[in-house]
Amino acid sequence: MAKKRILIIDDDAELGEEMAEILEAEGYSVEKVSDGLKGIELIRKNIYNVFLLDFKIQGMTGIDLLKIIRKKDPKAAVFFVSGRPGLDAILAAESLSDEIKGIIEKPFDSELLLEKVRACHA
Fold first, then answer.
1. Using the 8-state DSSP alphabet, how is residue 23 labeled?
2. How many structural domains compose the chain?
3. Which of 8, 44, 55, 75 could covalently link to 32 via disulfide, CB atoms 3.0 to 4.6 Å apart?
C-alpha cells in the first residue's frame, strides 16, 4: 500500500517540523512549507491525502487555501491548525464546518494529531 501523503502549510517552521517528524515516524510521506504561495504551488502540482493548514499565513487564510484544495480534490482531508480561540465559530459563520475534518489546536498534542490523521484512513 502506498504511503499516505500529507502537506503541512504553517508559517511556524518549528511547529511544522515537529508535526512532520511525528507523522513521518508513523510512516506518512510529509512535505512542509512555511509560505502560503509555495503551498499553493505544491497543491497544484501534487496529490495529497491530508492537509494541515495554518489558519492565518502571510496575507492569506486557511480558507483561501481550502478553496484551492477543494477545486482540485473535493474529498481530501483538511485540518486547520490554529492557536486562535473561536475558530469553530468563524468556520460555522463561513459555512465551512462541513468542509474540514477538524481543528488541531496549538500547541498540539501529538497523540491527538495522529488520532485525527489516522481516522482519515480508517
1. H
2. 1
3. 8
